[in-house]
Structures are given as C-alpha cells and as structure tokens.
Amino acid sequence: MNRNTSEDHDDIFDVAVVGAGAAGLSAALFLTRARRRTVIYDGGPVRNSMISKIHEYLGYEGSTPAEFLERGRSEVVSYGGEIRSETVLKIEARPDGLFDVWGSKMKITARAVVLATGLVDVLPMVPGLKEGLGKYVHLCPCFSGYEVRDKPFVAFGLPERLAQLGKFLTAWSSDVTVVSPHEFDSETLTRLDGFGVKTVQDEVTGLVTEGDQLVSIATASGTEVPCEAVFVAAPFKAASELAASLCEVDEAGFAVTDTYGRTSRPGVWAIGNATDQLAHLVHSAASGANIGPWVVDYLLETSLNPKKKE
Q1: Tens digit of pLDDT for each residue in 138-177?
Q2: Which of 6, 41, 128, 182 lies at a CB distance of 3.0 to 4.6 Å from 207, suitable for a disulfide?
Q3: Of 243, 202, 238, whose CA–CA distance to 220 is shortest?
Q4: Assigned CATH class of 123-233
C-alpha cells in the first residue's frame, strides 16, 4: 500500500523546496516520483544564468542555462510538482513539527523543507567587473577556461585563493599573471614561478576595454597589465538568510549539513551551493537526488509517529 503522507491533508504539502536551480529541481524530481506532494519556489535568476553555455555536464554540453532549467521544470511538473514564481520571505518551525512557509504571495504549510537557495559571489568594487561577467570576466576556469584558452590571463581577488587559482589557470594558458597588493611568501612565489605564473604586487583598479574586448587591467600604481580575460577569486556568501533562521550556519551564512544534507533542525535539508560553495552544476544536481531518499524516509517515519503538539 502506498503511504501518501498528504492524502488526508490537502492543505499541507509534504515538501517545500526553496530554489529552482539544478539542486532544487533535482530534489523535486525525486520527491514527486516518490509521490510526495511537493511545491518548488522559483525566486528568480540562478547563479549560472550569467554564463551563455553549460559545460562539463554530460549530456548537456553546450546547452543554455535556460534550456537546462526549462527541461528540468517540465520534468518536475510532469510528475505533479507545483512550481511557484515566488520568493520565500520566511519559514517558521511549528511546535507540531511542521513548517509555515511565507511566500511573497501566500503562506503554505509543509512537513519538510529543502533549501536550495544557492550563493552570491561578492565581487570586488572594481569598475566594469559586473558588466564583463560571462564575457571577459570569469569566476572559475572549470566553467569557461577552455573558451578563452591560450589568451593572456590576469587573476586577482582573495589572497588566500590566488596562488592556487594562478597555478590552476596554467592548464588553459601559458600567460598568467597574478595581481595583488598582498605580499606572498618566498615559497609561494617560487612555486608560482615554477609554473610560469608572473606576479605583480599592485591593486587592480579597473578594466581597460576596446569595444567589447578586454585589453588590460589598470592598477593603483598607474600601470597596465595586458590581458584578454580576468579570473576573480571572489568570496562567497549565502544568497538567503533562511538557513540562518532555521538551523546552524557557518560564518558566511551557509547551512551546516551532514553527508546526507541534513541540517541541525529535523525536517530541514540544504543542498547544492546553499551548503557547498564549490559545487558545480552537476554536483548540485546530484545533491538533490542524493537527499531524496532521506527526505522520503523522514516523511514516512513522521507520518507514523507524528510529533506531539506542545
């Protein structure tokens, strides 16, 4: 016999998935196929909307993010998932173990919550940086290194990540320069030199373009470093404060989870970039599928032994 945990409570959803990117839609696909009544909140553009083509995702190579998401949305809807174009404003855990979810249009109640709210890249305050994103400004060579291969690169941003980024970029170009006011130790400089990475101790203050092409970066000392692509080691922060209102988070606001995506609050999971800042698109999609069985198991257990109201 199928145990549909919402069969006698049409006003209650089994799961509220917050976020309709790769992670959220993947989780929703599993949950709807497991016959759980699932609502998915699509609050707007996702992080990968800044790129023109998807790469390193088997079967989707060269697809646009819009095509990828539209296909995912259609698959979820085909199994009964309900996608709402709403931003979730707050979620409150109730004494009876359920969750009240306030969207920008209405409130619903859910037995479990999956946070797939993603992250935000905090770009340095350098003129022209945001405008160049996805064209000549890049955040990770895994996404776009091949497309700008063999061009001169400049890397700048967080000092603690720059040495690794500079080395890594040599997989795509033999002309890499790290620009930073930070004074790297001699061991780091020797290693970078060994990989052929040049270093300039200065601060990036602007991008120099000709038409739609990047030609160099400007520095605080008044010099320019020629380049055709820049890679920024930018810090991350959680895109939403929902996790902080529900469960344990780290210093950047990301939910702390176990290997199954469970947070410190029973009934709340976090997946994709909402908990893993380095997850790529394929990793985020996998995280949604990975938590599916655990969410279903939780719903079945709590339907058999519901929490007593306090």
Answers
A1: 999 998 999 999 999 999 999 999 999 999 999 999 999 9
A2: 128
A3: 202
A4: alpha beta
